[in-house]
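quick one, 184 residues, struct below
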Amino acid sequence: AIWKLVSISDWVSKYFILLGLFLLSVVCVAIIIYKFIEFRRQKRRLVQLLLQVKKSKTFGDLAALSRGHEQYVGDKFLLESLNSLKTLIGEKPEDAKTLSSDDIEQLDLLLGQDIDALTLAEEQYLPVLGTSASVSILIGLSGTIWGLINAFFSISQEKSADLAVIAPGIAAALLTTFAGLMVA
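---
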């Protein structure tokens, strides 16, 4: 029945609205699958990294953990954190290598900035999903309006407001709203 509704739709509803919504849904599904696979990969590496961090005994051991795995978020964070800590310790005179409460606050601020930067990098493609959810409903609604205009045009051509005249046009119009809601 859905294919019949698509076949009775006019070319604007078929090729612009329904095809556009289909392509948008393909892009959204691809992003969702990519992010799901990426999230699982990052999570597996994070678990491995956590086990390795627990086994580490020295600062050098920690620094060696993240080398060679720069594509993972946990490794990037560990490397940036160690670099920030190394910078704070390196600025101190040789006889005072302990961290004060101000140093710990500064390290906390630096770590917060690192987390924000890494989060921003990992949120790649997510605005496309949000925009698609908002826009697809409006695209479907515009298809409904277009279909209703065509249904009223059919009434004027047939000079009859019979249900058999307007029902196919209204059904095809509602199909675009349904498609927009499904993409959203």
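The chain has a mean pLDDT of 81.
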